[in-house]
Amino acid sequence: MSTVPTLARTASDGPGGPAAGADARLLAGAAEAIGPAPDLVLALSRHGHRTLHVTGTAPEPDDRPRDRLRYELGSASKTFTGLLLARLVAAGRLSYDAPAAELLAPGHPVHPSLRAITLRHLVTHTSGLPGLPAGFYPQAVPRWTTAPYAGYDTDRVVRAFLRARPRHAPGTRWHYSNFAVAVLAHTLAATTGTPWEVLVHREVLAPLHLDATALGPGRPGADATGHGRGGAPVPLLDIGGFAGAGAVRSTPHDLLTFLEAHLAASGAYAGTEAAGVTPFVPPPDAPLAAALAEMRRPVLRRGLRHTHTHTLTWFQHASPHGPVNFHAGATPGQQAFLGYCPDTGTALAAVCTRRVSHGDPFVATVHGVLTE
Question: Which end of the chain has fewer beta carbons closer than 10 Å to its terminal beta carbon, N or C?
Answer without folding.
Answer: N
